[in-house]
C-alpha cells in the first residue's frame, strides 16, 4: 500500500510531524489527527469527500478488475487470432496445392480434349469423304438405273406398238391367208 505524508495545518500555525498513513484510512481521521480541532462544516465536507473518495476507489477497483479482465480477453483473442491466422494460412497453403493440382488436371484434360477433337475431326472428314464417294457412286448408279429404266420404258412402249402392229399384221395375214385359200379354192374349183 502506498503511504503519503499528512497534510500541513491550514492556519493554526501548528505543524505536526510527517507520518506515514495508509491510503485506505479515512481522510477525516487523517485530518483530525493533523489539525486537532475541526470545525463541523469542514468535518461534514470531509466526510462527504471521504464517502465520495471511497465510492471512487470502489469504482476504480471495479474498473481495474474490468481492465484486467479485458486485458486477459485481449490476450486470449490475440492467441485465438494467431491460431486462426496459422490455421487459415495452413489451409490456404493446402488449397494452393489443390488449386495447382486442379489447374494441372485442367491442362491435361484440355490437351486430351484437343487431341480427341482433332482425331474426331479427322475421322469425321474421312467419314464424310467416304460418304461423299459412296453417294457419288450411288448417284451415278441411280442415274444409270434411271437411264436404263427410261430406255426400258421406251422399249416397252415400242414393244407394245410393235406387238400391236404384229398382231394387226398377223390378223391381216390370217385374213389374207383365208382370202388366199378362198381365192385358191375358187381358182381350183373353176379351173
From TrEMBL:
Intracellular or extracellular location(s): Cell projection, Cilium
Keywords tagged on the record: Cell projection, Cilium, Coiled coil
Give GO cellular component annotations, separated by semicolons: ciliary basal body
UniProt feature coiled coil, ranges: 53-155
Molecular-function GO terms, alphabetical: microtubule binding
Family, as annotated: Belongs to the CFAP157 family.
Per its record, how is this protein called by name?
Cilia- and flagella-associated protein 157
